[in-house]
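To the wet lab folks,

You asked to see what we're planning to order before we commit. Fair enough. Below is the target structure as tokens, and below that is the sequence we designed to fit it. If anything looks off to you, flag it before the synthesis order goes out.
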């Protein structure tokens, strides 16, 4: 007796459906455990020398997968932030000596320009060659609900995102700075969301930092 295609599909789905429909989402979008990330990538893993940071050529800032330059329609929105934060080093707090600099020392309290946060997220996250390390940065920086994507053959090969509560971020980093900005954030912001995307070579192509309203 010849099985119809519909019957064959039903049998196959019954036989292997658990394997396909449970494991595939875990590969495409996985929830990360902050404590495990911190154990795998301790704070020391984020320390680099000023010389190393200075020696590495900066990857051009990209917005929505395209290099942001004078030819782009939204260039004027980003121009000031790109000028103020031209390198990863310019986005970090560090002493003027030859000691190590931590990529976790994000200059949160001095963000005053539009798009400045996402420019610095792009600068710092361009230093990571492992999506788990990008996720660990988020964990160490107080972000939770961290999810990653590892799908080398997909449209978005690698990505990570996380959420941070305003009160926690302010108490730990002083962000946002300024009395008025803080009051406004308390009234309208429910959470901050950070997100990054990478290509197949783990070169960053997009970064975002946004507010989720109450």
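Sequence we intend to order:
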């Amino acid at each position: 007796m010849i099985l119809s295609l519909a019957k064959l599909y039903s049998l196959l789905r019954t036989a292997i459906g658990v394997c396909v429909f449970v494991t595939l989402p875990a590969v495409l979008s996985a929830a990360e455990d902050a404590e495990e990330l911190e154990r795998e990538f301790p704070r020391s893993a984020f320390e680099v020398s000023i010389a190393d940071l200075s020696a590495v050529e900066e990857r051009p800032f990209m917005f929505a997968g395209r290099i942001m330059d004078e030819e782009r329609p939204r260039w004027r929105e980003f121009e000031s932030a790109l000028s103020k934060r031209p390198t990863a080093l310019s986005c970090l707090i560090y002493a003027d000596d030859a000691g190590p600099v931590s990529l976790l020392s994000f200059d949160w309290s001095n963000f005053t320009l539009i798009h400045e946060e996402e420019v610095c997220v792009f600068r710092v996250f361009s230093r990571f060659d492992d999506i788990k390390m990008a996720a660990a940065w988020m964990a160490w920086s107080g972000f939770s609900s961290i999810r990653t994507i590892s799908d080398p053959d997909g449209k978005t090969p690698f990505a990570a995102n996380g959420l941070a509560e305003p009160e926690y971020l302010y108490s730990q980093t002083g962000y946002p700075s300024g009395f008025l900005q803080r009051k406004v954030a308390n009234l309208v912001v429910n959470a901050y969301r950070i997100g990054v995307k990478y290509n197949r070579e783990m070169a960053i192509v997009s970064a975002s930092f946004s507010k989720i309203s109450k």
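Structural context that might help your review: The chain has one domain: 29-213. The helical segments are 5-28, 34-40, 50-55, 75-84, 116-125, 131-140, 166-173, 179-188.

Thanks,
Computational group
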